[in-house]
């Protein structure tokens, strides 16, 4: 278990997001990989030791401060595996860097 999964597991939101994603990462290439071999969607599934993260579905919103991201409705969230989440956030940050101050980490759970 990692600290990532704790807060939203308490509310059920994390479980709802991951269940809606069928327990599978919802990245469709924003991490920089095309996931072409897997019909355009990351094949990583939730399992012990490789938990999915519930985070904003829009890469730009991955840069939101945690309290703002936590206020997003469930349909604005997606399940991310750690590599896709981190890579998508890094790419979004690079894209936003020019006109936005550095954001806090937005891994919520
Ligand atoms: Zn992924
Ligand atoms: Zn990905």
Characterization of the model:
With 109 residues, the protein is mostly helical. The protein has one domain. 31% of the residues lie in helices and 7% in strands. It contains four helices and two strands. The protein has helices at residues 6-11, 13-20, 66-70, 82-96, and strands at 53-56, 77-80. The chain has a two-stranded antiparallel ribbon with strand order 1-2. It is globular, with a radius of gyration of 13 Å. Residues 1-6 have low confidence and may be disordered. One zinc ion is lined by residues 27, 31, 33, 35, 42, 84.
Summarize the structure.
With 109 residues, this protein is mainly α. The protein has helices spanning 6-11, 13-20, 66-70, 82-96, and strands at residues 53-56, 77-80. The chain contains 4 helices and 2 strands; from the N terminus they run ααβαβα.
